[in-house]
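I hope you will forgive my troubling you with a question about protein structure. I am sending you one protein, given as its amino acid sequence and as whole-number tokens for its backbone shapes. Thank you for your consideration; the sequence and its tokens are set out here:
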Amino acid sequence: MTDAITAKLVRRFGPGAAEWVATLPALVAECARRWRLEVGEPFDSGASSVAVRATVGGRAAVLKLSPDGPFLAAQAEMLRLFEPSGRMPVLLAEAPGALLLEAVRPGTEVADLRRQPAPEEYAALLLDLHAVEPPDGVPDDVRLRTEQFLRHGISRLGEPALADSGLRRDDFERALDGLDDLFAPPWPSALLHGDLHLGNVLDGGSRGLVAIDPKVCVGDRCWDAVDYVLAGAGRRDGVEYRLRALSTAARIDVDRLYTWCRLVAAATAVSVLLRGGSGRAVDELLALAR
């Protein structure tokens, strides 16, 4: 497990991250003393942090550590911001380079569920998140994030996993050209999670869906909705059903959400292929993009 953690963090932070990983047992022990934790096994490591199972006062918790202290401090602020929604883990404690969060039970990522949430369940998550009033100073950079997502897709086109996919550079260039029309008219904005792919949404049992790892911004609500819709590609319900049902339940303009789906479908197909996803899903996404 230590080797896997080191490899991921070195990719993110460079060779110096290996030295930080070497100090990880001492950091965990220090947090255990400070917060009176019983520490368990680590979760699969993320790209920027390490999460460890823990209990505090008999309550299940997650200890999150990172060599990037400001990154965790920003995450703590985002979690506090969304606390009124009840849709993110509660921040139990904070120290430089460490967060203690409530554990979400059962906590399975929606991406891994055999039965994915119905559009009405996902809409309830979006409505609760987007009801939080945005404070001053939150970045309004959805267009920049969209451009980066599309250009990242272009940068991966030469990879072997995409060799026979049918993806073309013009699929992405057409989407980039379409951003002017999408962002030209004024459109109501909300406080967004900002990175609401289905790996960042957990099954919270009777609590409903819970979002993790926000990258908060202000912008079009479609940005938080589009991943769920496109995840219907290759599944029995399909993109069109999710599009219409989610739009209705979440009170999102269906035509605008459809435009969003078309613009990011090719870049989403790249992600599907790199994860070893089905050809059926890719075919549906490419048909939508074109």
Observations:
- The domain at 110-289 is CATH 3.90.1200.10 (Aminoglycoside 3'-phosphotransferase; Chain: A, domain 2).
